[in-house]
Structure formats: structure tokens, C-alpha cells
Amino acid sequence: IDTNVIKSAPDPFIYSGIGDLISKITALYDWLYEHQQGYSTLDDFAYMIAKKAVNSFVRTPFTSIKDDLFLKELVDSLAMSGIANEMAGNSAPSSGSEHLISHALDKLMDVPLLHGIQVGIATYLMSKVQNHRWQRIHTVLTDTGFWSYAKTLQLKRKDLEKAIDLAPTIKPNRHTFIHEEKYRTEAKLLLLNDPIFQQILCE
After folding, report:
1. Is 193 helix (H, G, I), strand (E, B) or coil?
2. How many CB atoms lie within 10 A of CB 199?
3. Could you say which of 72, 115, 142, 166 has the lowest number of CB atoms within 10 Å?
4. Cα dihedral sign, 20-21-22-28
5. Is 155 helix (H, G, I), strand (E, B) or coil?
């Protein structure tokens, strides 16, 4: 991968890569939850590879999202999460409830946002529902400028609410947090009460 080409891309495309990569945190937690509930079998090696990949990225120091090291870690980690999918034989290591919300938005919105932007927003939402590493996710999305960009998009609260309800139907064979009504209810309450969503969503 030629990082010089990526460096020349508009910032929103890099934000999209960041959103897609950071989602491995919530996706892995969903996969672990499924395993614990008896709905799937966790592949320990694939889980470890995906977890190492995202942890390597979130710990990378940077002053700009165009830094060589930052972009190298971003593309390396995305590649490794893809390899984890191959090991697992499915997309569970890198795609959970946050991706289901994004796919639902694709169905609901006339003009969907970039995939990774939708996924990044949904990742923060689901990390709060999971109560799992949301502070780290918030820090990454703040420090990279992701949230500042998200504020310009005028994403409607009602679209996200509908996407939360539609999400379980995207992959009915999965059993992530979003497949349970109590967590969908919690997610919709966060859209109203969480300070980040109060800033980036419109009516």
C-alpha cells in the first residue's frame, strides 16, 4: 500500500478509515458476547490478531492524520483485521453491531455517508451501550478531528433511531448487543442524552 497516495486523499476518506478501524473494539466485544451467550464459537487466534491490530493503532502517537507512522499503522491494522476475518471464516472479528447500524443507514438514507464515517459514529454509540473502552474511542475520534468533521454532516437523529431498530434484521443469524431490545432502547436514549450526539445530530 502506497501511503503517499493515501496521504493525498481528502481528510474525510482518512476519517472513514479511522472509523472503520476503531470499530474492531466494539465488534470484538460483540463477538465475545455472542460466544458467552452460546450463539457462536470464538476463534481465539483470530480474536487475538484483530485485537492486537486495533490496539497497535490506538496507541500510535501522531501530530497529524497525515503522519507517515499514523497512516502506516492505520493501513497495517486494517489489513490485519481482514486477515483475522479469513482466519475466523466470517466477518465477526471486524464487524459487529456498529456495522449493522451503518448497513441499516445505507438502506434508510437517500444519500448515505461514507461507510467508515457511519461506522465510527455507531462505534462510539455501541461502546457506550457496551460500557467498553468508550473513553479510548472518544479520545481517538476527538484527537484525529473525526468528531469535528461529523458535526458538519447534519446527520438526523431520527435516521439513527430507525437504523438502530432495523439493524438486527441485517444479519438475523448474529446475536450482538443490538439484537437485544434492552440495548436498542439504551442506544436510542444515548442519542438524546449523550453530549457528543447532542453536538453532531440534528432534528
Report:
1. helix
2. 11
3. 142
4. positive
5. strand
Nearest to 116 by CA among 103, 125, 133, 128: 103
Among 127, 109, 112, 118, CA closest to 178: 127
The residues near 3 (Cβ < 8 Å, ≥ 6 apart) are 68, 71, 72, 75
Q: Are 178 and 104 in contact (CB under 8 A)?
A: no
CB 150 within 8 A of CB 196: no
Rounded CA-CA distance 190/66 in Å is 32
**pLDDT truncated to tens, each residue of the chain (203 aa)?**
898 999 999 999 999 999 999 999 999 999 999 999 999 999 999 999 999 999 999 999 999 999 999 999 999 999 999 999 999 999 999 999 999 999 999 999 999 999 999 999 999 999 999 999 999 999 999 999 999 999 999 999 999 999 999 999 999 999 999 999 999 999 999 999 999 999 999 98
Burial class (CB in 10 A: 0-12, 13-18, 19+), 116: buried
C-alpha cell, 132? 467498553
Cell numbers standing for residue 176:
450482538
| Whole-Å CA distances, 184 to 75, 102, 118 | 32, 14, 17
Beta partners for residue 201, in sequence order: 155
